[in-house]
Amino acid sequence: MFDLKNCNSLRDDTKYHKDRRTMNSPLLDWIRGKLDRFGVALSALCLLHCVSGVVLVGLMGLGGGAFFAPQVHQIGLMAAIAIGAVGLGFGVARHGQREVLLIAGAGLGLMAMGLVVPHGVVEALVTLPGVGLLAFAHIRNLRHCA
What we know:
The chain is mainly α and 146 residues long. It has one domain: Four Helix Bundle (Hemerythrin (Met), subunit A), CATH 1.20.120. α3 runs antiparallel to α7 and α6 runs antiparallel to α7. The longest helix has 35 residues. The relative contact order is 0.15.
């Protein structure tokens, strides 16, 4: 039978929680907060890129070659992975809420899937939910660390 009275004392004795307390550095908190905010801003730019790209290319035929170049998407995904790994990694090390990483992983997975599907509506239908999940993970990370 599990004793609820001793639950907190058992949890505090684990190596995981002792290591988590060392992540409460003001400098690390500042860096993590900046990375999370930058991650949300990058997600918003990606959303704007996808929506405005479909509108500009579809309605006016402007800049389709440069705007939808695969390199733009590959660089964006690499930046999202790097910012997410550092910012979310520091946050989860501090607050211990692993579902933030699961949400971010699902978002990054959908964004990566957007690289292999044909450009256009299908790509937007895969990428936009991924961007939304990644931004949501950064926002949750900010709130858990506050």
